[in-house]
Write a structure and sequence with these properties.
alpha/beta, Rossmann fold, binds adenosine-5'-triphosphate, nucleotide-binding, ATP binding
C-alpha cells in the first residue's frame, strides 16, 4: 500500500532521516520503534509532505512527491499527530467536522460511527476539546483522523502520557481498526505494546533503519529486548 524508498528528511542543514526504505502492506499493522530523536516522527511527517524531504513515497501506485498534505489526505492517508493536537477551543463535534473537511457529505454518518467506536466521545460531544482527559483527547484525535475515511492511518505515539488502562483501550482500538480493513503505520516509544499488535516492525536509530523483522521475532530478539523493551 505504501512503498518508501531512500527517504531523507532535512531541517535546514540537519539531516534527521538518512535514507530509509520500508513498506506498509495493505491490511497490516507496521511499527516504527526506536529511541528519542531516532527520526520516527520525521518519517511520518515526510509521508504527508509536512517536512522537507527527498526520496520516493508511493501510495497505492500514486507518487506523492509534489503533492500537498491535504491532497494526500484526500487520497486516503491520515495522521494522528504526536501530542494529539485536538482543537482545544472547539467542541468535540466541531473537531470531528474539521476532520471531515474533504468529506462533508458523509459527516453525519461518520460522526455516528465514531460515537459508536468511542461512546465516551459521544457523551462529551458538546464539550470543548481542551476540557477532555488525555485518553479522551487521544480518542478524539483518532476519530478526527478517521473522519477522512483513510485507507492508511498513521499514529504517532498514541500511548504517550496515558494511564495503563487507557493505553490498553487505545491499542485495542488500533487492532479493531485493522480488522475493519484499515492499514496502520504506528510509531511508539512503548515498543513492547506496539510489537504485540504489529505484524512487522522496523527499528530506527539516528536516522537509519537498523533492524527489521516480523514483530514476534523482534520481541524475542535479545538485542531488541535489552535496548528497547527494558530487558
Ligand atoms: P521522539 O520520539 O523524541 O519524537 P523521533 O524518533 O520521532 O523522536 P524526530 O522527532 O523525528 O525523532 O527527530 C529526529 C531528529 O530531528 C532529532 O534529532 C530532532 O532533534 C530533529 N528535529 C526534529 N524536528 C526538528 C525541527 N523542526 N527542527 C530541527 N530539528 C528537528
Amino acid at each position: 500500500m505504501i512503498k518508501v524508498k531512500d527517504l531523507h528528511v532535512y531541517y535546514g542543514v540537519i539531516e534527521a532521516v538518512k535514507g530509509v526504505s520500508f513498506e506498509v502492506p495493505e491490511g497490516k499493522i507496521i511499527s516504527l520503534i526506536g529511541s528519542n530523536g531516532a527520526g520516527k516522527t520525521s518519517t511520518l511527517n515526510a509521508l504527508l509532505n509536512r517536512v522537507k524531504r527527498k526520496g520516493e513515497v508511493i501510495f497505492s501506485g500514486f507518487h506523492t512527491d509534489k503533492h500537498k498534505t491535504h491532497t494526500l489526505v484526500q487520497h486516503g492517508i491520515a495522521l494522528v499527530p504526536e501530542g494529539r493536537r485536538v482543537f482545544i477551543n472547539l467542541t468535540v463535534e466541531e473537531n470531528l467536522r474539521m476532520g471531515a473537511f474533504n468529506n462533508d457529505e458523509n459527516y453525519e454518518h461518520l460522526k455516528e460511527a465514531m460515537f459508536e467506536l468511542f461512546p465516551r466521545i459521544k457523551e462529551k460531544r458538546h464539550q470543548m476539546g481542551g476540557t477532555l482527559s488525555g485518553g479522551e483527547q487521544q480518542m478524539l484525535a483518532i476519530s478526527r483522523a478517521l473522519m477522512s475515511e483513510p485507507k492508511v492511518l498513521m499514529l504517532d505515539e498514541p500511548s504517550l502520557g496515558l494511564a495503563p488502562k487507557v493505553i490498553g483501550e487505545v491499542f485495542a482500538t488500533i487492532e479493531r481498526l485493522k480488522k475493519e480493513g484499515i492499514t496502520i503505520l504506528l510509531v511508539e516509544q512503548n515498543a513492547f505494546a506496539a510489537l504485540k499488535i504489529s505484524d512487522y516492525a522496523y527499528v530506527m536509530e539516528n536516522g537509519h533503519i537498523v533492524m527489521e523483522d516480523v514483530a514476534a521475532s523482534l520481541v524475542g530478539n535479545d538485542e531488541v529486548r535489552k535496548k528497547y523493551l527494558g530487558g
